[in-house]
């Protein structure tokens, strides 16, 4: 090529090369400063799309691991509550077994029954009030008892765990419902005894002055027959009967029989078998009791204690079945978390190979670009000598 003043070809080539080298150096500096090989789609369009898909899955798996851990915590809370219910049931069974023995007295059974009733109330308290972050666990619309609960344990909508303990917990709830009845029976017994005492006082005090004495609403009236003594109340009648005064012995038997019949009629005379004497009623569904003396609750007699043993054995079995379901799902989630961790590890490694800067390689590229920049700048300066040669030829 000829020597020219108008066009400095050497300078143009050097400038173009220097511009390319500068762009390469800028890319290397960007990659080294951010740590990413791909900083924009232009760096690697296909690689960016693959990396985004891997990143979506990896982030989803990380959330799924937290979901699984929360699910474990939730079920462990429920199972822990049922463990305490099991401990209570063991103690109630001990009390029932002890009360079923013929060596204990009525006073002994009454003391046992007091503890038995309180333990039953605590079973209901645990069952009704155990919750996880405000969400009911064993009772209520959103609890395990209501039906299937679904846990999201993967990065896609299909990766879920369905836990359904409605059957097992319903059996537990049915047994606990019996303790509600026992509580109602206790209230019924108290009300009936109170009304029985009122009837005794009423019939004893008024029978001598009236042919018929009205008792409880819908109850049995007392009709005096023959010669009936005069008494202020039942205590007065009882004292005179013990002393053998007049007709007090016969009168006492008549009054006690009529009072018991009056209260019994009040209990069984209602279509639902409820005791509704006066203004206070005790609802017991279809439970019917033939007499005041038949009213009992919990461990008040040997037969009920024996029945309590059978109830507790079934109840403990039901608790065990529900706890086994919780335990099985907790163990499954432990393995799920391990697998999610393995998947996340490998996804992150794959994404890193696409997105991350290889510092060893890129630092070499940067050094090469820096040297080319320095040499290019030097050559650009030397290219100014070409026009000067033309001037020397004119001189």
UniProtKB/TrEMBL annotation:
Residues 5-141 form the Flagellin N-terminal domain. It holds the Pfam family Flagellin_C. Keywords: Bacterial flagellum, Secreted. Coiled coil: none annotated. It is found in: Secreted; Bacterial flagellum. Flagellin is the subunit protein which polymerizes to form the filaments of bacterial flagella. This is Flagellin. It comes from Vibrio qingdaonensis. The lineage of its organism: Bacteria, Pseudomonadati, Pseudomonadota, Gammaproteobacteria, Vibrionales.
């Amino acid at each position: 090529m000829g020597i020219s003043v108008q066009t400095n070809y050497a300078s143009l080539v050097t400038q173009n090369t220097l511009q390319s080298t500068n762009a390469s150096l800028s890319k290397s500096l960007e990659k080294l400063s951010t740590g990413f090989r791909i900083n924009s789609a232009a760096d690697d369009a296909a690689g960016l799309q693959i990396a985004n898909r891997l990143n979506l899955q990896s982030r989803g798996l990380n959330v799924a691991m937290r979901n699984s851990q929360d699910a474990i915590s939730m079920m462990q809370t429920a199972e822990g509550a049922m463990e305490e219910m099991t401990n209570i049931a063991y103690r109630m069974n001990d009390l029932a077994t002890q009360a079923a023995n013929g060596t204990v007295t009525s006073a002994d059974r009454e003391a046992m029954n007091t503890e038995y009733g309180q333990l039953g109330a605590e079973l209901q308290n645990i069952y009704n009030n155990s919750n996880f972050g405000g969400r009911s666990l064993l009772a209520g619309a959103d609890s395990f008892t209501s039906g299937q609960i679904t846990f999201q344990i993967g990065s896609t909508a299909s990766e879920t765990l369905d836990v359904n303990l409605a059957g097992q917990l319903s059996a537990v709830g049915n047994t606990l419902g019996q303790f509600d009845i026992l509580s109602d029976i206790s209230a019924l017994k108290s009300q009936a005894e109170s009304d029985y005492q009122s009837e005794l006082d009423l019939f004893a005090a008024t029978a001598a002055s009236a042919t018929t004495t009205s008792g409880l609403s819908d109850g049995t009236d007392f009709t005096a027959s023959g010669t009936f003594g005069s008494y202020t109340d039942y205590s007065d009648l009882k004292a005179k009967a013990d002393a053998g005064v007049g007709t007090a012995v016969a009168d006492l038997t008549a009054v006690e029989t009529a009072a018991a019949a009056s209260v019994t009629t009040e209990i069984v005379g209602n279509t639902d078998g409820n005791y509704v004497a006066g203004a206070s009623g005790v609802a017991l569904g279809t439970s019917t009791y033939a007499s005041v003396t038949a009213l009992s609750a919990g461990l008040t007699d040997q037969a009920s204690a024996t029945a309590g043993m059978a109830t507790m054995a079934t109840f403990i079995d039901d608790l065990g079945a529900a706890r086994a379901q919780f335990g099985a799902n907790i163990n499954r989630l432990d393995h799920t978390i391990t697998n999610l961790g393995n998947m996340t590890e490998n996804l992150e490694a794959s994404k890193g190979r696409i997105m991350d800067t290889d510092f060893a390689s890129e630092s070499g590229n940067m050094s090469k670009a820096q040297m080319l920049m320095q040499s290019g700048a030097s050559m650009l300066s030397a290219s100014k000598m070409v026009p000067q040669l033309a001037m020397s030829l004119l001189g």
